[in-house]
Amino acid sequence: MRSSAIFVAIAAAVVSAQVPTYKSALNMTIDPNSVAQQQRAVWCQAQTNTCQVLCDNNADENDCNQATLTYDCTCASNSSAPGLQYYTQTLPTFICEQLFSNCIQTNAGNQDGQNACKTNIQKLCATQSPPTAAEISSLDQSSAPTETTSSKGVSSTHHTAATTTAPQSAASSAAQSSTSSGFAAATQGPIGTGAFAMAAAGLMAYVL
């Protein structure tokens, strides 16, 4: 019985050793020669397109090397990289998906090994599509200044906020730069009870 337990522990350790553990898709690498040249070209084209969109068409650096599968993506607005690891159609995600596929093939017939592939690799691969240019433009408009109007001495403030579909939790950070806040819609706080009390007092004075 004891020897069986030891064997299971050893087997689990072997599986764990075969499947690397990553912190995120950003630190995943792959041998470029293991990917067809045409496929690498497709990956790089998608990478530069997505970088441009995430930087709101204003990237300081935006290039992708097909030979080495390395890239540079820096937005001019904040001189930092957007959260590429949270979006599909980026080089980190392409590499993540390819590593997962390779891992599954390597562990064919090995349930424990394939489970490790899902835990250590697949869960880090992005599933959120990049925002469109129209969505980014809409989010930019949400930061427009508020308009204040007055009527009979009572002021009212109108806030303009974009209506967007909230992405899943892993990708909500995705719209953010890796070092600074990204696209955040404006929010309107609740109106205090003091304003209602003042308005009621004014109306009573007018009646009397």
Residue-averaged pLDDT: 72
Largest sheet: 2 strands, antiparallel
| Measured distance between first and last alpha carbons | 93 Å
Q: Which stretches are poorly predicted, pLDDT < 50 over at least 5 residues?
A: 1-17, 144-208
What sequence of helices (H) and strands (E) makes up the elements?
HHEEHHHEEHH
Lateral strand order in the biggest sheet: 1-2
Q: Helix share of residues?
A: 40-55%
Count the beta strands: 4
State the secondary-structure class: alpha+beta
Strand content: 5-15%
Q: What attributes does this structure have?
A:
DUF7707; elongated; DUF7707 domain-containing protein; disordered C terminus; signal; single chain; alpha+beta; 208 residues
Summarize the topology:
Layout: H1 2-18, H2 37-54, E1 59-65, E2 70-75, H3 91-106, H4 111-120, H5 133-141, E3 147-151, E4 154-158, H6 169-172, H7 193-207
Antiparallel strand pairs: 1-2, 3-4
Q: Can you put this structure into words, describing what you see?
A:
The structure is a single chain. This protein has 208 residues and is an alpha+beta fold. It has helices at 2-18, 37-54, 91-106, 111-120, 133-141, 169-172, 193-207; strands spanning 59-65, 70-75, 147-151, 154-158. It contains 7 helices and 4 strands. The protein has a domain at 25-124. Keywords: Signal. Residues 1-17 form the signal peptide. This is DUF7707 domain-containing protein.
